[in-house]
Design goal:
The protein is built from 14 helices and 17 strands. By secondary structure, it is of the alpha+beta class. It folds into three domains: 187 residues, Rossmann fold (3-Layer(aba) Sandwich), CATH 3.40.50; 73 residues, Uridine Diphospho-n-acetylenolpyruvylglucosamine Reductase, domain 3 (2-Layer Sandwich); 79 residues, no CATH class.
Length: 413
């Protein structure tokens, strides 16, 4: 049965039966996709005694946004759903507005979900979003990963997000809302041709007579997702063969790495850089190719907050000390590390400096390079060093990588 022949409720039910949450958050903008998701999820959840919460992010960029958020709040009130409005005030007028808003939206939703102890946050991406994204990335000459369908489940900012409606068209969702007598808000920016996604949406209208429509592009994208999964599995096995982890660093056998196919070594480098220097996105292919060249020429190189140092037989990827130089935490978690020990008021976590490292008598015995240790976490009380677990000064403290910072997840979900 094709996705067009599958009802929205059947698709959503099938998704949640394989990803059953104990509590569910719904991100609702007021548009048709997210409102349909809210109503469908509510019916599913109440039949199974699953708690449902809703949140609307107000980016503060349009005068209509407050009225749209209130529209959602009214619908939630009428259906007995706890609803929160999350305000963003972080736009400084610099850079890509849509990208900045997207990053802020996920961060706010993650913080909201964690405050309410919500298992997963559902977002209303549809088959149309898959097709539009495919065209956008095709114009940017993306490879398999960029063209592959969106992942149905992913983690961001320590929170689980799910997309249960990737197999449903926007038209089907709007038909469902009309039949349910639920009105939605139309964002005028969805018709503004200055945005790439809007132009992509308009292009689909002209491609449809050629058979290149939402359903066909979504199907192609899903085929590429299967290819992505196979390529990722191969890269996982390659990583197991050529690399070892060492307290947050990655040590790689140089010759075996250089013998890997281009697609495989790029995946390995991408995952390694994202693991060592937490970021939402990996460097572009050109940067990964430059890093591969530096490895082949035995040159040191910095990239994306990481440092690669290379010898004849092995190269090492580690955190760049400069990237975390001013990062200070007043909690026992820092960068990608969790510090465990006798925490007390007035303590903070920050990096070691060269002078302080030199004062630790046995730091060379820990077996880690100086460069790695200068980017490692240390516990301070005012200006007094309390502990530097990776440098051999434990004083009852340990440092462990945060659970969400796993190297090379086995497979895309």
């Amino acid at each position: 049965m094709s996705v067009n022949e599958t009802s929205p409720i059947a698709v959503l039910t099938g998704f949640f039966e394989s990803h059953p949450p104990q509590s569910l958050g719904i991100a609702v903008s007021g548009g048709s996709d997210s409102l349909a998701l809210l109503m469908l999820a509510l019916d599913w959840a109440r039949a199974r005694d699953v708690s449902v919460f809703a949140a609307t992010v107000d980016h503060g960029l349009r005068p209509e946004a407050k009225a749209e958020a209130q529209h959602v709040a009214d619908i939630c009130r009428d259906h007995g759903i706890q609803h929160d409005i999350l305000a963003w005030q972080g736009w400084d007028g610099q850079g890509n507005l849509q990208a900045a808003a997207r990053i802020a939206r996920y961060r706010l939703l993650a913080e909201w979900a964690q405050t309410r102890d919500i298992d997963g946050v559902a977002i209303g991406h549809t088959m149309d979003d898959v097709a539009e994204t495919f065209l956008l990335r095709l114009s940017r000459k993306s490879g398999v990963d960029g063209l592959a369908a969106m992942q149905p489940a992913f983690d961001r900012h320590g929170q689980r997000f799910v997309r249960p409606l990737l197999g449903v068209s926007r038209d089907d969702l709007r038909s469902f809302l009309k039949a349910s007598d639920v009105t939605w808000c139309d964002d005028p920016s969805n018709e503004d041709l200055k945005f790439d996604r809007v132009r992509s949406r308009k292009a689909l209208e002209h491609l449809a007579p050629l058979g290149i429509d939402v359903a066909s592009l979504a199907s192609v994208s899903q085929n590429l997702a299967s290819a992505r999964k196979a390529l990722q599995a191969f890269a996982v096995h390659a990583a197991q063969d050529v690399s070892v982890q060492d307290r947050g660093d990655l040590i790689v056998t140089r010759k075996a790495f250089l013998d890997l196919p281009m697609e495989t070594y790029r995946r390995l480098l991408k995952e390694a850089l994202l693991w060592i220097s937490p970021a939402d996105y990996a460097p572009r292919q050109e940067a990964l190719t430059a890093l591969h060249l530096a490895i082949s020429e035995r040159r040191t190189m910095t990239l994306a907050g990481c440092v690669m140092t290379c010898g004849d037989h092995r190269f090492r990827l580690t955190r760049e000390a400069k990237a975390v130089e001013g990062v200070i935490s007043d909690r026992p978690s820092w960068d990608r590390w969790q510090l465990n020990g006798p925490w007390r008021d007035g303590m903070e976590i920050r990096v070691l400096d060269g002078t302080t490292l030199a004062s630790i008598a046995d730091w060379r015995d820990c077996g880690m390079p100086r460069q790695s240790l200068l980017a490692s976490p240390a516990v301070w009380h005012q200006e007094n060093l309390v502990a530097a677990p990776l440098a051999g000064l434990s004083n009852g403290w340990t440092a462990d990588l945060l659970p969400e910072h796993a190297f090379f997840p086995l497979l895309y979900e």
